[in-house]
Amino acid sequence: MRFHFTEEQDQFRDALRRFLRDHSSTTAVRRAMASDRGFDPTVWRRLADDLGVQGLHIPQVYGGSGFGVAELCIAMEEMGRALLCAPFLASAVIAAKAIELIADESQKHALLPALASGRSIATLAFAERTTGFALDGIALEAMPQADAYRLTGNKHYVLDGCAADVLLVAGRIAGSRDLSLFLVRAEAAGLQRRALDVIDPTRRLAAIEFAGTPAQLLGQAGRADAGLIRTLDIANVALANEMVGG
Fold it and tell me: N or C: which end of the chain has fewer CB within 10 A?
């Protein structure tokens, strides 16, 4: 079996490559790596306004373009080729997919359009300091309180964790062994974020501490496991294609 890209896919690749040639030169990459945020907000906005790339893999009903994994892989390969410094993987791929798979309909409509337009940056926080990336090692606890939750614990290796205004946090409700997903705003009380030293400065990582931090449950309690596994599968495919490009 032979696979060929369609004419539309080739046109998308060419347009994105031209954009990145203009906005992700060696000089621009070095400037972004040295900046506080780790990316150029102006380039991020242009990427959304000119090409709509942030909404590429988000369904149309939630403000995206609704393209599939093939188009996502084209974008990741070209971004890897240009060493683009941007929270695309964290926000437009991983966080957006987690919301699509786990959140309820009203939450999807409230959150995904802002990610698709690039106005909001989100990230998924699931790895922890002592247990690494294993989902079964997640120990962060969510304590029910009135109509919200309070989170206590830590997250490590959070992609673009200091730049995101929305944090999607995987944890367990007190007394439950099943995983739930929570939304935390960057300005929430009891939240501390710290940039980690990284080998690759094109991809920023953060450590985050939660001390009774208020959070909103996304979707149903204790029903996030399958969605998180699927989200990380998509993330691995995207990352592999970025490595092909880079």
Answer: N
Can you read off the two tokens belonging to residue 47? 């990427």
Look at residues 111, 9, 116 and name the one whose alpha carbon lies nearest to residue 63: 116
> In this structure, is the dihedral angle defined by the CA atoms of residues 222, 111, 148 and 162, taken in order, positive or negative?
positive
CA atoms of 193 and 171, how far apart (whole Å): 17
pLDDT in tens, 152-178: 999 999 999 999 999 999 999 999 999
Phi-psi sector, 157: left (phi>0), alpha (psi -120 to 50), beta? left
**Distance in angstroms (rounded) separating the CA atoms of residues 23 and 43:** 7
| Cα separation, 212 vs 215, whole angstroms | 9
Gap between the Cα atoms of 122 and 160, Å rounded: 8
Q: Kindly list the structural domains of the chain, giving each domain's residue range(s) and its CATH number in brackets, ordered by start.
A: 7-119+230-245 (1.10.540.10), 122-222 (2.40.110.10)
